Amino acid sequence: MMRLLRVLFCAYIMVVIVNAMPEPKDPRVPFKFYSRQDWGAAPANDTVPLNTPVPYVVIHHTYIPGACHTFEECSRSMLSMQNYHGVTLDWGDIGYNFCVGSEGGAYEGRGWKTKGIHAGRANGISVGICLIGDWRSELPPSMQLETTKALIESGVEKGFIRPDYKLVGHRQVMSTECPGGALYEHISGWEHFSPTFVPMKA
Ligand SMILES: [Zn+2]
Questions:
Q1: What local confidence, expressed as pLDDT, does residue 10 receive?
Q2: Tens digit of pLDDT for each residue in 7-34?
Q3: How many angstroms is it from 169 CA to the middle of ligand 1?
Q4: If you measure from the C-alpha of residue 177 to the centroid of ligand 1, how many angstroms do you get, rounded to a whole number?
């Protein structure tokens, strides 16, 4: 009888402790995510649906603008890119699906469901992620790299990226130095990196 009471008391204490703990953060989103609304995006004028799940992820850098380290700086970079891509180049919106800042924030560009304009023939079969900054000779801070990986992972979990996706740098799809030599060298060690770009059927 005493033993049963002890067990019941311990179980009661466990319930009290567990209930007193703070709500765990969603483990699938281990980074700050900023929606278009958060960074003050203008409405998109080009919204072709993306056929998902996509078989490719294409990695970019901006070169210009340079790295941003706060939400305010990164929001300004997003707005300047949206203006350049959307108005100056007449693409109707920022070209990338997502961007990532050096402070570790992920910024929604066209998002998961809209075809981007970032890598020519790969646009319709990929999600384009841009690491804001010039990564030709310098590597992005680890937070920026980790958020990029986690963002891709969340895309797989949400069903927008194929679990067997291939990761490539922009330079493998088109003639460009993007995503910069240092960053390209680094992502070539990532698990899903593909040394060649041979488009699979989406
Ligand atoms: Zn690029």
A1: 55
A2: 665 565 555 554 554 444 455 568 999 9
A3: 8
A4: 8
What does the DSSP assignment read for the chain?
-HHHHHHHHHHHHHHHHHHHSPPPP-TT--SEEE-HHHHTPPPPS--PBP-SSEEEEEEEE-SSS----SHHHHHHHHHHHHHIIIIIS--SS-S-SEEE-TTSEEEESS-SSB--SSSGGGGGGEEEEEESS--SSSPPPHHHHHHHHHHHHHHHHTTSEEEEEEEEEGGGTSSS-TT-HHHHHHHTTSTTB-SS--PPP-
Q: How far is the CA of 165 from the centre of ligand 1 (A)?
A: 19
Domains of the chain: 27-187 (3.40.80.10)
Residue 22 pLDDT: 45
Q: How far is the CA of 20 from the centre of ligand 1 (A)?
A: 47
79 alpha carbon – ligand 1 mean position (Å): 17
Tell me, in angstroms, the distance from the centre of ligand 1 to residue 149's CA: 17
